[in-house]
């Protein structure tokens, strides 16, 4: 399993002072007119964002007794990297297939993410045993689920990129928006054997009810954190595939480097 440094955000006063929210309460939040936006910042700015979120009454999801959840995700792709290239070539309708482990609990899922031509993403998933994280091809139920929910079958796919990160999840007092904050991102390319990290980069995703006011947007604007379209899978592949044509994403990486004031390549 890929390992990267883990910054103890859970020891910072800004996070310690944010009151908890349970998973059951979070599950009760239904964002019917949901809009998703991604943002990129650095660890220093994240501390300021957390302080402002605390003052605005945000709560932090607690699972397995901690406000930091460790995730381990493995993306699958065809031998020709069709899913990566569909994204690189701006195909509007596309899919990604992955397995994900919630490290604290060991819960493991096979997930299919589908993006339509309106830019909306839907995720379907089914639970699988932990030991099938890297290979679910012998699980008839999982293979059937994949064939039913995606364009691909298990024999067409093999592990491509492992991505690990730690996540903080915040919800506003009105329960009209959620923030997922991903830190300590690391990548392990199963095809090239190369590893990389996003260094001090932090990816924030805002999921909000489009009809409601957004305090989080005001906080992000205050700290000059701007929206960015970014895919962990595509950035990870670009950072760990020196011979692959990745022109479009290399431009994206230059923007990321400028924003986090750090070199990635």
General description of the model:
By secondary structure, the protein is α+β, with helices and mostly antiparallel strands. The chain has one domain: mRNA Triphosphatase Cet1, Chain A, CATH 3.20.100. Helices cover 26% and strands 33% of the residues. The protein has helices at residues 13-16, 23-27, 43-55, 82-88, 140-149, 215-222, 232-240, 247-260, and strands spanning 20-21, 34-42, 59-61, 69-77, 94-102, 107-115, 121-128, 158-171, 177-189, 195-197, 201-209. Strands 1, 2, 3, 4, 5, 6, 7, 8, 9, 10 and 11 form an 11-stranded mixed sheet that branches. A hairpin with a 4-residue loop joins strand 5 and strand 6 (107-115). The protein is globular.
Number of domains: 1
Write down the CATH topology. mRNA Triphosphatase Cet1, Chain A
Which consecutive residue ranges, at least 5 long each, have pLDDT under 50? 4-10
If classified by CATH, what would the architecture be? Alpha-Beta Barrel
Sketch the major β-sheet: 11 strands, mixed
Oligomer: single chain
In short:
With 265 residues, this protein is an alpha+beta fold. It has helices spanning 13-16, 23-27, 43-55, 82-88, 140-149, 215-222, 232-240, 247-260, and strands spanning 20-21, 34-42, 59-61, 69-77, 94-102, 107-115, 121-128, 158-171, 177-189, 195-197, 201-209. Mean pLDDT is 90; it is low at 4-10.
């Amino acid at each position: 399993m890929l390992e990267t440094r883990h910054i103890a955000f859970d020891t910072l006063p800004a996070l310690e002072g944010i009151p908890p929210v349970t998973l059951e309460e979070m599950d009760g939040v239904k964002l019917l007119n949901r809009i998703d936006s991604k943002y990129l910042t650095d660890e220093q700015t994240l501390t300021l964002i957390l302080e402002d979120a605390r003052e605005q009454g945000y709560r932090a999801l607690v699972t397995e007794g901690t406000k930091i959840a460790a995730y381990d995700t493995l993306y699958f792709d065809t031998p020709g990297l069709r899913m990566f290239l569909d994204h690189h070539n701006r195909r509007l309708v596309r899919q990604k297939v992955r397995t994900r482990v919630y490290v604290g609990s060991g819960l493991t899922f096979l997930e299919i993410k589908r993006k339509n031509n309106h830019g909306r993403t839907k995720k379907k998933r089914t639970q699988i045993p932990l030991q099938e994280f890297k290979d679910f091809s012998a699980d008839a139920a999982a293979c059937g689920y994949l064939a039913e929910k995606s364009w691909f079958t298990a024999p067409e796919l093999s592990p491509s990129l492992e991505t690990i990160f730690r996540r903080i999840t915040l919800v506003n007092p009105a329960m009209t928006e959620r923030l997922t904050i991903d830190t300590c991102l690391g990548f392990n390319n199963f095809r090239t054997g190369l590893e990389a990290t996003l260094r001090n980069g932090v990816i924030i995703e805002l999921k909000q009810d489009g009809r409601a006011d957004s305090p989080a947007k005001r906080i992000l604007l205050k700290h000059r954190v701007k929206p960015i379209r970014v895919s962990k899978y595509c950035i990870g592949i670009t950072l760990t595939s020196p011979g692959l044509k990745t022109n479009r994403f290399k431009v994206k990486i230059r923007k990321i480097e400028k924003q986090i004031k750090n070199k990635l390549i």
